[in-house]
Prior knowledge:
The complex is a heterodimer. Chain A is α+β, with helices and mostly antiparallel strands.
Amino acid sequence: MPPKKTNQRPQRVVQSAKPAAARKPAAKRSREEDREESTYAGETLLNGKLAPEEDDEDDEDFEIDTGSSNGDLEDFLDREALDSPADDEEDEGDDDEGYNTSDIEAMEDASDDEGDLDDTSSVASSSVAPSTVPDSNLTLDQLIARHTYKPDENMDIHVSAATGGRPLVGDEKSGKFSSAKEGTGRLVPSKFVKGGMTREYEDIEAGYGSESSTEENTNTIGNVPIEWYDDLPHIGYDVNGRKIMRPAKGDELDKFLATVEDPDSWQVALHITRLPELTFSDKLLQQQVQLSDRELDIIRRLQNAENPDADYDPYQSTIEWFTGKGNEMTMPLSAAPEPKRRFVPSKWEHKKVMKIVRAIREGRIVPNKPAVEKPKVYGIWSNDDVENPPHAMYMPAPQIPPPKTVESYNPPEEYLFDEEERREWEQQEKEDRKVDFMPQKHDALRRVPGYEHFVQERFERCLDLYLAPRTRKVKLNIDPESLVPKLPSPKELRPFPTNCAVQYRHPANSRVRCVSVDARGEWVASGSEDGIVRVWDLGNGREVWRWNLKGGPVQAVEWSPNKEECILSAAVAGRIYLLAPLALISPHVAQATLTHLNTAFSSSSASTSNTAGKPQVPDAKWVRPSEDERDRGMMVIVEVQGTPKQLTWHRKGDYFASVAVDASNKSVLIHQLSKHQTQSPFKRTKGAVQRVAFHPHKPHFFVATQRYVRLYDLVGQQLIKTLMTGLKWISSLDVHPLGDNLIVGSYDKKLCWFDLDLSTKPYKTLRYHTKALRAVAYHRAYPLFASASDDGSIQIFHGTVYSDLMQNPLIVPLKVLRGHQITDGLGVLDLRWHPTKPWLISSGADGEVRLWSS
Amino acid sequence: MAKIKRRGESGAAKNYITRTQALKKLQISLSDFRRLCILKGIYPREPTNKKKANKGSSAPASFYYSKDILYLLHEPLLQKFREHKTFAKKLARALGRGEWALAAGLEERKPLARLDHLVKERYPTFKQALQDLNDPLSLLCLFERLPRDPVPGKTQVPPEITAECGKLVAEWKVWAIRTHALRKVFLSIKGVYYECEVPAGRSGETVNVRWLEPWEFKQTVPADVDFRILLTFLDLYRTLTSFVLFKLYTDENLVYPPQLDVKLDEAGQGVGKFKLVERAPEVEAAPAETKDGKRITKKDVKKSIKSIAHAGTAEGMEVDEEVPEVKEEQDEEFVYHPSKNDEEAADPANAPPTPRLPDYTLFSPYTFYLSRETSSRTWEFVIRAFGGKVVTADSIATLDPTVASQITHILLDRPMEPAVMRKLQGDHKWTWVQPQWVADCANLRRLLPAGEGSGYEPGGTLPPHVSPWDGEGVNDRPWLGVEARAAATAEDEESGDEEMAVDGSEVLDTPAMRAAAENPADSTLVHQAELEAEASGVDHAAFKKHLAQLSKSRAEGPADTKKNKKPAAAAAAAAAAEEDQRKIMMTGKKQRLYEKMQYSNNERRQEADKLESKRQAIEKRKKKEGKK
């Protein structure tokens, strides 16, 4: 039976491991040959070495053992068994279901040494084995030879299990592959074979380095919080699905005692504190793990980035397999014959050398001849040199200016710094200083010390020369006076007002907002903030008439320009008064005035407000004052919307216009005196109207809004021109008596002169007042104009307008008149020219009206 | 349709290139670029619009004119830099391998950069070279006396360079002495300023070259001074100066470089150590030069060494007296040589091409003894340049009586008892002066009184030393000067003569003119008036005439002016008001310009006023002290 058995078992294994073609030659080989061959393969080496000492049965046991430990392999072998029907015939006799080799082994073992059931007697079984197979040596050899190519997985598992994955060395080579042969396993009845026994082994304790040691975590719950198991008696499941019960835990006192008693407790602490990643398995198993010295050593090595294996030698001596002494190659690599060029001198080199030699012989080449040096200096400039043509990008560096007396070692005493200058010089930054040294005076040349910044200054100059960015700056080397325009002297442009002749004082210094001179130049009317319109004698400054309008401040007064009449218009909030100082004027003038003012009342006093076909202003109401008031010279009252701020008469004295900024679209009104009619020329005005003016001889009408001046044709009812002033807020406006020029004053301190023939942009914009302009006015007869400002001054200009269209107007500033006091930030509020003389009347916020004469 | 103009393809974007871009383009290191810039005279520019020049970026950058950089691309110097780089590598390798023979061979064939092409390129005409000579001479003067390691542990200054600087400066001075080109001397706290008038060609043009020589003390060198930069500049400046000197010497019909008399050099002579050799008229200059050069190199050195070894005892004796007698006859000798007076007098007939004014040989009849404490470097140069002769010795007491009898002036910079002076003087007629006297005389071109009470006597209180450049332009910008001159001439041509004749006197009657007439000594006022006159189209002669007339009339009637003072003041106020009125009609731009000009003029005036008031206060105080 044993021979048969042995015969049978290896065959199976070989079948399972080797292709059929390899089987026969291997079988023919002798055992010795096998041994030789076995030296080539690492794994089979083991077998070869084992062979002389141990018996063939070792191998057999080995095989069987693998079978028993691996279920998959068992199945595999079963299939193999099915493939070889010749062998299986005998097997089938045993068991139809198919039995595996381990069962047979178990049975054999059981039959061999019944007595050695305990795990200790492995030697006994091995000692028995050789005696059992002394005669079957040949076949065994063949089998062993076949062994050399057995499947790896069987081997691997065992090797790794026994040696921790390392190649076997030393003692481990002594054959203790498995404890199967030694019969350490426990015999238990087989589950598969009736009445058969199988050997069950203890779980292998994997050493460090084995595959399984890193997987020693037997808790298989995975990466779930361990707290989930807090309420349960177990803490997870092992690989077999069995519950892992919670290990007993001591209370805090126990823990403390443990730390006190246990000298290794620091290792635990270390484990927890320093290596949190290893506490993971700890947690899963709910227990403290102590690190062994070896593990600690590994950790230390890992921390130091060393190889974790203590035995690893990074500096192994090289094993000279193919080099070194004794390994010299005796045969050449190539059998090609040596080429000729390796041992015959070059012909071409020879030719070249000979060429040089000949040249040397003939003296064409002089060896070691010193190079011909260009002379160090020679004449590079001749008299016919030409400068480079000038170029915009050529910027020679500026020269250092010549030293001045202040730099002298012995300057005049005034050049020395006094205490204040010295302090200032010391405090200034180096760059800001006018001179880069402190002036010093030495009484003798021998006392002059070395200048300590000499090197520094030279160095800075050098830096400037190559580092300082250069640019071309045009420096105007002209007399500043040449910039001032050449204008005729004011002396040549006389007469113009130069000094204050008469002052018209208002009581309580109430502001005089407006002033006007009558057409004959006899009377001055002024309207002050106390609501009284006063008429003054122009010549002597006496107040000759007054009307108390009782409507708040008088906003505007204006005499009619008609010399045959004497009508004064005055505006207060909501009303325009037409006044006439009847007692002061000659009777026929008074008569004409009365007729003009009252005709409309007599013709149709009832329906004054809406008779004509033209658009009427219903709000404007022409009212006849009481008899008493009429006796005082208050002839007509026109009630209007808002507060009229400006009144201006048409040159014929029948129409006058009023501007009330706060009356929205009814801000501009044109009143006709003879018919007592009021009309609003604009349905809608663009922007707030500031000022209006009649054209001196055309039916045109100027309207100044905040920024623009518009010129309308009243007959054609259309816009002619819009003048772009460029000002922010227009305050005043006046038209030249010839009608082609215009001056506009603004609150932003500017005055614009427009030439209507020239452009819609200003011909000149002048800025000379320091505060807002309040009023501007042309003289009707003289080429003069003036502007009044909040800075308390009046500027008189000469302004000639030429009839030649090609010649621009000549503007010459003539004189600044000062005299008005600035009160509450207001200076001169209004100004008017005398109709015939070069005199100027101005009113100020200081409650004064002044007459300026030449 | 017009071609679409793309951004960054024309104008400032194309005209300028940043330094980083330039470095990339040239593929050189920053230090090489620096050297190139210094040598080639390439400088950064300030574009009018930096953002446009930098392709829209406003990051700080220094801009170069892109054509400058383009021209640098084929600069031979750049090639030399590269060659040197490879040479340095090869040498380092050879040394590292210990291949000494190879290293020696390499060292022999070391690529050397020459800068002569740069001189011609940067200064196409001699005049331009002279115009730019101020900085080179000043830097050479500085390096003349620098130690080998000015900043310890940093870049060293090779002693050969120092020696060459000294040689060039001395050669320049020798030339100035020979041609009497020195015009101005100014002793400042920084050093001594000199100004030479150098002929700039055949047309009779001259260029003023001014340089500063530091006082002979050890220089304090701040640690942050980069001597690599200074040495690069010095390379260029040495080359430039040597070429300029060559031209000057050749124009004077002299051999350049002049022979160095080794004995005199060893004896510590300054400018006297050179032997000037006239060029042979027929023979070409070059061979003569080399001959001379060879002759001096070896034999003379040996001879001089021998002579020095022999003359160990002759330390105290005067070298400059004895050596000239040994000299050959035809050698022009500038060291004191009493027997040569007649020869020198004969010399100017053939040698100097341009006749010199007698002013510049102010000291020709005099012989100066330089006392030990006076700097012979300065005073020997100045005195000789103005025609004087110089004697130096350790002390007056040991002077040779024949020499002593020739001396006319003693330059002494220390107080000395009159009794001692008299004793030393004996029966010689010597004038004792302090060094400033020489400088002041030279600047004024006349001999100042030097006796007792003048302040120039030893130990006396010196009168103030005033800069000879006072009243000259603050900042000399050559291109501005050219433009202004061109504009002026154009104006002159435009305004016809008859027009000038008609309204010349009216135009000339300006406030500046009046002020100038009142104080004709004040050069600034006169200059201002002159400028005004020029601006109004009056020629110089007419201006001078008018000024003279005016000043005469002022001098005649000072009482008149006093009488009219009050009305004049009122009139001035009225005029001011009128002027003020006219300003209303100026445009804003002109107004601002006017304000600026007025401001700067006021500043200047205030400064002058302040000086004047300080002077008056000091005078008052002195008077008071004098009374007490």
